[in-house]
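Possible regression after last week's pipeline update?

I re-ran a chain I had predicted before the update to compare outputs. Posting the input and the new output here so someone can diff against the archived version. Not blocking, just want to make sure nothing changed silently.
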Amino acid sequence: MNCTFSLSLFLTFYLIASNIAGRTTKTVTTSLVFIAYCAGNMAGAQVFEEKDAPHYTPATLGCCICFRAECILILVWRYSYIFQTHVILGQQDIADTQNPHFMYSY
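New output (post-update):
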C-alpha cells in the first residue's frame, strides 16, 4: 500500500506541474495539495485505534476505500483533460482560460 500511495502523490504533483499555466497558479495549487496531503496524514493516524489491534481491520478498510477513491479521481481528472484537449482542438479560441496554444498533458 505504501508504494501505491507514494506513486499517486508524485503523479498528482506531475499533473499539476504539467497542466497548470502560470507560476503563481501552479505554486498555489501545489501548496493546497500539499496542505491537503498533510491534513490527510494527520486524520489518517486517528483511524488506527488500539482496540482494533493487531489487524486494524476498520483502519485498513478505510485506507483501501481512500486509495480507491484516489484512483477514481485521478482517472476522472485524466479523462477531463482528454475531453478538454479535444474541445481545444475543435475550437482554437479556448484553452486554459483563453490561451489557444495551451495543451493539457495526460
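Follow-up from reviewer: compared with the archived run. The mean pLDDT is 81. Marking as no regression found.
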